[in-house]
Amino acid sequence: QVQLQESGPGLVKPSETLSLTCTVSGGSIGSDYWSWVRQPPGKGLEWIGYIYYSGSTNYNPSLKSRVTISVDTSKNQFSLKLSSVTAADTAVYYCARASYIVVVKAAMLWFDPWGQGTLVTVSS
Amino acid sequence: QAVLTQPPSVSAAPGQKVTISCSGSSSNIGNHYVSWYQQLPGTAPKLLIYENNKRPSGIPDRFSGSKSGTSATLGITGLQTGDEADYYCGTWDSSLSAGVFGGGTKLTVL
């Protein structure tokens, strides 16, 4: 079965770029959507965006100007870059496989499975 | 401020039934499908329900989902202490062109 694992620095300085990678094992990254979701400490979930294995992306409008999600099919990995971070970007960052299907203008979007999550703290 | 509205907390006794509501609008729940997630303390969210009322393999039928208009409901029967967790609803929002979640509901099994 597919498993996901996030990796990257746990501490990022303000104004710098947060970079995380998600490694997919137990299956191919091809033919699916892949997503990032974050959760500030003690708060709810926030969708960051998704990427299709072919490279097309869709980002949360609230983060769009700062977010880049990319995919490397040769390594079975996808990545997140979030620029100009502030303390408000401190969160547990999860990667997840996304299912996104549109049927007669009705969208189905769900996330399964999820990685274990990685805490990224923004602090000097 | 989450786009979808959930009660902050619900509680019930072991063996009883509980429902968790998720309220939205025509741009999200009203015209798109809803999913539900369980987040046990200190762990990643886990998919419970997708496409409003379908359960992934391995999810017991004690968990059910429904949708009516711009609201959705997660039902849990035969409550167990192991069901104590945070529960989140999610869907697509066509006005935002984004995935959205509810603020989460903490379930306490008394």
Q: How does this model look, in words?
A:
- The model of chain A has no long low-confidence stretch (mean pLDDT 95).
- Helices cover 0% and strands 57% of the residues of chain A.
- In chain A, a hairpin with a 4-residue loop joins strand 7 and strand 8.
- Chain A is built from no helices and eleven strands.
- Chain A has 124 residues and is mainly β.
- In chain A, strands 2, 4, 5, 6, 9, 10 and 11 form a seven-stranded mixed β-sheet that branches. A four-stranded antiparallel β-sheet of chain A has the order 1-3-8-7, with no helix packed on it.
- Chain B is mainly β.
- Helices cover 0% and strands 45% of the residues of chain B.
- In chain B, a hairpin with a 4-residue loop joins strand 7 and strand 8.
- Chain B is globular, with a radius of gyration of 13 Å.
- Chains A and B meet through strand 5, strand 9 and strand 10 of A and strand 7 and strand 8 of B.
Please describe the topology of this protein.
The complex is a heterodimer of chains A (124) and B (110).
Chain A: E1 3-7, E2 11-12, E3 18-25, E4 33-39, E5 46-52, E6 57-59, E7 67-72, E8 77-82, E9 91-103, E10 106-114, E11 118-122
Chain B: E1 9-12, E2 18-23, E3 35-39, E4 46-49, E5 63-68, E6 71-76, E7 85-93, E8 98-101, E9 105-109
Parallel strand pairs in B: 1-9
Antiparallel strand pairs in B: 2-6, 3-4, 3-7, 5-6, 7-8, 7-9
User: How many separate helices of chain A?
Assistant: 0
Helix content range of chain B: under 10%
Supply Rg of chain B.
13 Å
Low-confidence stretches of chain A: none
Characterize the largest beta sheet of chain A: strand count, sense, and whether it forms a barrel: 7 strands, mixed
Per DSSP E runs of 2 or more residues, the count of β-strands of chain A stands at 11
Distance between the termini of chain A: 39 Å
The coarse silhouette of chain B is globular
